[in-house]
Amino acid sequence: MEIVAKNSITSGTGGSGHRLVEGEFWTSRQRRMHSLHYAVSYRASFKPELPDFFIQRHTKPGDVVFDPFSGRGTTVLQANLTGRIGYANDVNPLSERIAYPKTHPVLLEEIARTLDQIDLSSPVEMDGLSDLLHFYHKDTLREIVNLRKYLKTHKSDVDRFIEMIALSRLHGHSTGFFSVYSFPQISIPAANQGKINERRNQIPDYRPVKERILRKAKQVLRDADVEAIREVGDKNVFITGDSRNLAGIPSDCAALIVTSPPFLDKADYVQDNWLEFWFLDIDIEEMRERIFRTGDLEKWEGFMLDSMREMRRVLRPGGVCVIEVGEVRHKGKQLNLDEIIAGLAPAAGLKVEEVMIHVQKFTKLANTFNVSNNEDGTNTHRLVVLRK
Fold first, then answer.
1. CATH architecture of 11-105+221-387
2. What is the pLDDT along the chain (388 residues), one digit of tens a residue?
3. Which neighbouring-strand residues pair with 72?
4. Who has the most CB within 10 Å: 47, 115, 219, 366?
């Protein structure tokens, strides 16, 4: 695929011999790709246009595309949608609970039939759940708890798809969510939700769970050829583990890796997903121990070097690895993480081919978090393209 960039800049950098290309490589418009991509909001996820750009450029149908920091499964899903096999890893088990159902969609009729058979009316002991009443009406919460109980013992692909859709409805800013007005992308603390309720003069109203799941499922499945996606998705591999030890992924198997690692300590993936962890019965304290998070640059570099060495092992000879990072504020200064990744590449046994800087304005969702263009946060995608 030919690179088309607006106002592109191409030059050598620091004598390393790789190109630097800057521009807009894919559209900044929202929700332009397959409807399954938008099933669940997820903190710090990239747009499907990003992996698609590199999948089309560096692979052919039947190739393996891998993401060692899978998040909500954008890379593996886009791989499947283009006839490639997806391998995915993430230390957070929430990732697999989102990504697997998206790559194994089911028919809307199956979802409706299963929902009809689930009893959400059983009485529920509310002791220990008082914090959740900041988000939910007591009758909505009763239905959520009953659904949670059902899903603990029912694991068919239909059940798993329902679970994934329910995750997407736990909190948000419209009446389509189970919660009263809240943030859609992160689980805010219950005390903060209480303050929002006071400020907005709102009280959680009853929101029937089944109809919201069915409505969202219809939207998510709008573009889906269920049989075709499942045929490819059945060849996928999902593991849950540390990116520095990808024992479940064979050596020399992937034509392409497209991934985005944690940007130092810029996101708290435990606190930001506490409601999802509760719903899935994932131990929060265990996750704090397992998920790597540090503000120490030297430790981050060590983590990334070990992860990149594993990525090289997984790549087939000649394979390409694309690591998406950004610029962050570190000790009062701007730090371009692509420069660090490029500097680590030789020690990982990888060659830097180019650094692509994709520039675009923040989305309306970023603005929800009071992040302004060219001021705070990550303003660009900085993509280090490496080859084995």
1. 3-Layer(aba) Sandwich (3.40)
2. 334 444 444 444 544 567 889 888 877 666 689 999 999 988 767 899 999 999 999 999 999 999 999 999 999 999 999 999 999 999 999 999 999 999 999 999 999 999 999 999 999 999 899 999 999 999 999 999 999 999 999 999 999 999 999 999 999 999 999 999 999 989 999 999 999 999 999 999 999 999 999 999 999 999 999 999 999 999 999 999 999 999 999 999 999 999 999 988 777 889 999 999 999 999 999 999 999 999 999 999 999 999 999 999 999 999 999 999 988 888 888 888 999 999 999 999 999 999 999 876 544 444 443 433 334 444 578 999 999 9
3. none
4. 47
Domain ranges of the chain: 11-105+221-387, 108-220
Q: Give the closest residue to 18 by CA, choosing from 356, 353, 387, 385.
A: 353
Which class for 246: exposed (0-12), middle (13-18), buried (19 or more C-beta within 10 A)?
A: buried
Residue 212 tokens read as 């919201």
